[in-house]
Design brief:
heterodimer; A: FAD/NAD(P)-binding domain; seven-stranded mixed beta sheet; 17 helices; B: alpha+beta; Ubiquitin-like (UB roll); 3 domains
């Protein structure tokens, strides 16, 4: 249900729908995109950036929220925990139990390693669970891994590490088969042909899905498989620091029980970081589509032991985050909605861009529409938005398409009285993905460290400065599996882990104090603190003079 | 222009304690507004993970409600508790060794045959699924139907919390979907062929050739690539 003042704009949208549905908007030229990005994409807002003054990326600028976290103080220091008392002694420790973590666990288990997973929430609680739209892979005769390479590398502005992109696209078909054999229910035609549509920046219909629960379907299947295999997972066990041994190799980690605050020491021959992204840092004040636990923990852990980050300054703002109603502010409206034909229109009901530009370009175009061009729609509670004209979908594909193809989206809006089959929805960019991250090679080894691996959203280099839709679910599987295989293989070569220490914490903090840096942040942050926000803004309304009746 | 967004305060009772909160919040946000910083019973915050199952009554009404805290708006005189964990029975199996028939499910999850058809599971489902219907499908060994009906299950486990027969509905459905995906859904032949092509290696040569080009050459190819209609 939209407030009354929006009716005029809604009428304009409805009036022009017929013509807008038929319209074939031009795609932007490379030059137009360049101007748009520099003018309006948040990655170019230099006033929002802060220079890193310690660590491997010293001198580089990243978003201020991330800089403060990376240069934060540690949660524990030498002496806070007895590192000679080993609680868990394993071959492979996996920190994070989302898509990449579970894929790694399964492959490490296949290789015969003794694996331990640890997650600060529950097994499977991850951004993977929330990836709605799809997974890319060149499975069709009309498509090829080379074409996929071109789209991914070009979409990332020619900055991805080529050997990583190669791995991503060439292993995609086999990963699809791996998932299918584990029982992932991809959308198929009657004859078994995988259904695929376009995503932003794809030149072939390569987006495969399981309705609009693609990530959830993959995640719950991987989770089920790790449980069937009885691979141990410590829930509510957040990693707060990596450990090195006497020879400087990574030899495990310290975990904290988030309920009891008890500390546990894990000794591991190899360690894999699969902790995901950082949307919950609310970079540049954006709302986020991310999981509650997406607080850049893995970046902090790796950075503090000396690992370099790649493209840590670039974030993905998903062009279509829900902007209304307030209860779902920032929630992801899957790109599949545009893939099915819905176009973005402004307050006057005019289409202002091709619906399938890459995400960075689309997000910048929405921001420009709402700022410079003044064609945005005011939303209750402040801020601006544009329409995503969802009724177009059923005009193109027939009635019933929305409920059958994007049931999750339909449910999300319908709960608040908005029937997206009949009315458009309001959207604005939402903080969605960390394009960069820990630098790895094609074996998922973390640069500048030994016996440390990483995979999933926490790594950088695969997607350059912009990830295409569907390449993240793919990356999680391809590199998750690889990190598991490589970590298990390395663990066989490690015959001894020396005495563990936290020397790196002292070294890093010395570097901070030498640079006169004190950000006042303790990291890894583990969880966002919304309690504090509310207390700041709305303190007075807490008290109640009435008794707590039962 | 929008009206100014002054929240209207209402009363809720959280874990037996009363608070005043703005009425436009979700239950999860209201919990944080009251000063809680949950580290369990919280997950994706957008209705996909099932971590924030909650149970409530409205004072004076007889009905018990189950919902996800991240997507349910608070109401006046809502009495709330959270279900951050509910124990289920999960069988370990090797999918490769299972045969998708009723004998198998009888062996793994025999309790589904104790269903008394009270339909409380369906009434409790936060996703509006026909839970009892899919359990009955599983009883008959119709895993395709079970998988289709349960597809939107996010495993919040509310159904299981109310079942007098102790059935672990979400785990049964999980198994059915895996069976359906692996054994029942038709094979994607083009995928099998593509995997064989990759294994053979010729198709990878094209990628290597492309990679060897300069960025300017690749940019030219990218900007002029043909886009499938």
């Amino acid at each position: 249900m939209y407030p009354e003042y929006l009716q005029l704009s809604l009428e304009k949208v409805a009036e022009k729908r017929e013509a807008n549905t038929a319209l074939q908007p031009e795609r932007m030229t490379a030059e137009e995109k360049d101007v748009l990005l520099k003018g309006f994409h948040p990655d170019y807002r230099t006033d929002q950036y802060t220079e890193l003054r310690a660590g491997a990326n010293k001198g580089d600028k990243v978003n201020t929220e991330l800089a403060e976290t990376l240069m934060g103080r540690a949660r524990i220091h030498a002496g806070d925990v007895n590192l000679d008392h080993i609680d868990y002694d394993v071959d492979v420790l996996i920190i994070g139990a989302g898509g990449a973590g579970c894929a790694a666990a399964i492959e490490a288990d296949n290789a015969g390693a003794n694996v331990l997973m640890a997650t600060k929430l529950r097994l499977g609680d991850a951004n993977t669970m929330m990836a709605e739209g799809g997974i890319q892979g060149a499975t069709k005769p009309t498509d090829s891994p080379a074409q996929h390479f071109l789209d991914a590398y070009g979409g990332g502005h020619y900055l991805g590490k080529k050997e990583l992109v190669y791995k991503l696209v060439t292993e995609a078909p086999e990963c699809f088969q791996w998932l299918n054999d584990m029982g992932v229910e991809f959308d198929k035609e009657e004859d078994g042909t995988l259904i695929a549509i376009h995503g932003g920046g794809t030149s072939r219909k390569r987006m495969h899905a399981a309705k609009d629960y693609t990530g959830a379907e993959i995640m719950r299947t991987l989770r089920d498989e790790t449980r069937c295999r009885r691979i141990p997972c410590l829930n509510y066990a957040a990693c707060i620091e990596l450990l090195r041994d006497e020879s400087g190799n990574i030899g495990g980690a310290v975990l904290i029980n988030t309920n009891t605050k008890e500390l546990k020491v894990v000794r591991a021959k190899t360690t894999i970081i699969t902790t995901g992204g950082s949307g919950r840092l609310h970079i540049q004040g954006f709302p986020t589509s991310n999981h509650h636990g997406a607080t850049a923990d893995g970046l902090v852990l790796a950075y503090r032991v000396g690992a370099p980050l790649l493209f840590a300054d670039t974030m993905q703002y998903h062009p279509t985050g829900a902007a209304y109603p307030e209860q779902i502010l920032g929630a992801l409206v899957t790109e599949k909605v545009r893939g099915l034909g819905a176009k973005l229109v402004n307050a006057d009901g005019d289409v202002f861009m091709h619906p399938l530009e890459t995400r960075d370009v689309a997000a910048a175009a929405v921001i420009r529409e709402c700022s410079e061009r003044g064609k945005g729609i005011d939303i209750p509670g402040g801020g601006q938005a544009v329409w995503l004209d969802t009724p177009m979908i059923e005009k193109i594909h027939g009635e019933g398409t929305i409920v059958s193809k994007i049931p999750g989206m339909f449910k999300m809006f319908n709960k608040y009285g908005i029937d997206m089959r009949k009315e458009p929805i309001l959207i604005y960019p939402t903080l969605h993905y960390q394009n960069g991250g820990i630098e790895i090679n094609e074996k998922c080894e973390v640069a500048n460290t030994k016996n440390l691996f990483a995979s999933g959203e926490v790594v950088g280099g695969i997607h350059g400065r912009n990830r295409l839709m569907g390449n993240s679910l793919l990356d999680v599987i391809v590199f998750g599996r690889e990190s598991g295989r490589q970590a298990a293989a390395r663990a066989k070569e490690v015959d001894h882990v020396g005495r563990l220490n936290l020397d790196h914490v002292a070294e890093f903090e010395q570097e901070l104090s030498d640079a006169w840096v004190d950000t006042g942040v303790v990291s890894p942050k583990l969880f966002p603190n919304y309690k504090a926000n509310f207390r700041t803004y709305l303190d007075t309304s807490f008290s109640s003079d009435k008794a707590d009746e039962q | 222009m929008p009206e100014k967004n002054e929240p209207n305060l209402i009363t809720i009772n959280l874990y037996g304690k009363r608070y005043r909160v703005p009425d436009n919040m979700t239950m999860l946000k209201a919990l944080e507004y009251c000063g809680y910083a949950p580290t369990r019973g919280i997950g994706c915050r957008h209705g996909f993970c099932g971590a924030c199952a909650m149970v409530y009554r409205i004072k004076g009404e007889r009905q018990l409600h189950y919902c996800l805290g991240c997507e349910t708006r608070v109401q006046d005189m809502m009495y709330i508790s959270t279900i951050s964990y509910f124990p289920l029975e999960k069988q370990a199996y090797k999918l490769d060794e299972l045969e998708p028939n009723a004998d198998m499910i009888m062996h793994l999850y025999p309790e589904i045959y104790s269903c008394v058809s009270c339909n409380t599971c369906t009434a409790t489902c936060t996703q509006g699924l026909d839970v009892m219907g899919y359990i009955h499908d599983a009883q008959k060994g119709d895993f395709k139907a079970c998988a289709e009906k349960s597809f939107d299950c996010i495993m919040c486990n509310c159904c299981a919390s109310r079942c007098p027969a102790g059935i672990s509905h979400p785990e049964v459905a999980m198994l059915a979907r895996r069976l359906n995906g692996k054994y029942i859904a038709p094979e994607a032949k083009h995928l099998t062929e593509r995997v064989a092509e990759v294994k053979k290696g010729d198709i990878l040569e094209d990628v290597r050739t492309l990679m060897a080009k300069s960025d300017d050459e690749i940019r030219e190819l990218y900007n002029n690539r043909e886009i499938e209609k």
